[in-house]
Write a structure and sequence with these properties.
Length: 130
């Protein structure tokens, strides 16, 4: 599988503002079934295990670095005072941890290249490298 490109086609969904294509778990599972040859159960279990591994690492306050894709980083935010946008009333915001994603330069460039091609749109299909 090394070096092979898997093209994952998201199913069309209607968004609130406009029609958009969204990549879903089902799309990834279907791609694993058709391109890799896993059964649907194997594909679903494989995807679930990968996502569970990412989540458990983030829960343990460890960053997740995926080469040529990007980094998921756990950031700590301090407690602060915020404002209710409707009333302007102050409200305390507690300290918390948040997950942020920083795309790799390669992913950033691929997205930029895809958007700069004639006829490109935000709804173009996704690709996944192995």
């Amino acid at each position: 599988m090394r070096g092979r490109r898997l093209r994952i086609q998201p199913k069309e969904r209607l968004g609130v503002r406009q029609a958009r294509k969204t990549l879903t778990r089902a799309d990834i599972v279907d791609t694993l079934v058709s391109k890799v040859g896993f059964s649907k159960q194997e594909s679903s279990a494989y995807l679930e295990r990968v996502l569970e591994l990412v989540c458990s690492e983030l829960e343990a306050d460890r960053d997740v670095k995926l080469a040529r894709f990007g980094n998921f980083v756990v950031r700590k935010k301090r407690a602060r005072v915020g404002r209710n946008p409707k009333t302007g009333e102050e409200a305390p915001i507690s300290a918390r941890r948040v997950v942020s994603f920083k795309p790799s330069p390669l992913l950033r460039q691929r997205v930029e290249d895809a958007m700069s091609q004639p006829g490109a749109s935000h709804d173009s299909g996704s690709q996944m490298h192995n």
